[in-house]
Design goal:
There is one protein chain. This protein has a single domain, classed as 3-Layer(aba) Sandwich (Rossmann fold). Helices cover about 45% and strands about 15% of the residues. The protein has six helices and five strands. Strands 3-2-1-4-5 form a five-stranded parallel sheet, sandwiched between helices. The protein is globular and about 50 Å long. It binds 4'-phosphopantetheine (PNS). The site of 4'-phosphopantetheine (PNS) has 9 residues, from strand 1 and helix 4. 4'-phosphopantetheine binds next to strand 1 and helix 4.
């Protein structure tokens, strides 16, 4: 039987912290699926196809890694793709409350699906998509935080947003 895991997130955009987790997680499973949430509540900086393209480019050559988008409940998606495990990253204690709450709720919704927490390398313990977007908009240095093509996409999108009439 294949061991399949889902690593869900907004990935707006993918950071080097996400990619560090992908490297760790993919060694533990036969298939490691990066699942981008089509979140209608948030106003993302990048569309789903843009985020998927950036993730695919960043994970090219990682043969057991796949990129998909999903809508609706994560546990329904996990069951649909045959994943017994949801992988999430814990960077610091501040992530823990929210992650524990989600893990418990997901267990209540689907008791057979386990949540596995992985810890990224400490150099990424403070990296988040939200901060990376903010740095891009405010013209800061993105090197080491995201892959170079993502940094280019962030700078381009930030320039578009700046040029847009308010
Ligand atoms: O990268 P994020 O924004 O921290 O990821 C959050 C995500 C996608 C894991 C979470 O919002 C999610 O699973 N959403 C899907 C809807 C769902 O299943 N909600 C109930 C979770 S307990």
């Amino acid at each position: 039987m294949k061991r399949i895991a889902v690593y869900p997130g907004t990935f707006d955009p993918v950071t080097n912290g996400h990619l560090d987790l992908v490297e760790r997680g993919r060694r533990l499973f036969d298939r490691f699926i990066l699942a981008i949430l089509e979140n209608r509540d948030k106003r993302p900086m990048f569309t789903i196809p843009e985020r998927a393209a950036m993730l695919r480019e960043a994970t090219v050559g990682l043969d057991n890694v796949e990129v998909e988008a999903f809508d609706g409940l994560l546990v329904h998606y996990a069951r649909r793709v045959g994943a017994a495990v949801i992988v999430r990253g814990i960077r610091a204690v501040t992530d823990f409350d929210y992650e524990l709450q989600m893990a418990m709720m997901n267990r209540r919704l689907a008791s057979s699906v386990e949540t596995l927490f992985l810890v990224p390398s400490e150099e990424y313990s403070y990296v988040s998509s939200r901060l990376v977007r903010e740095i891009a908009v405010l013209g800061g240095d993105l090197s080491g935080l995201v892959p170079p093509p993502v940094a280019a996409a962030l700078r381009a999108r930030a320039a578009e947003l700046e040029a847009r009439p308010r």
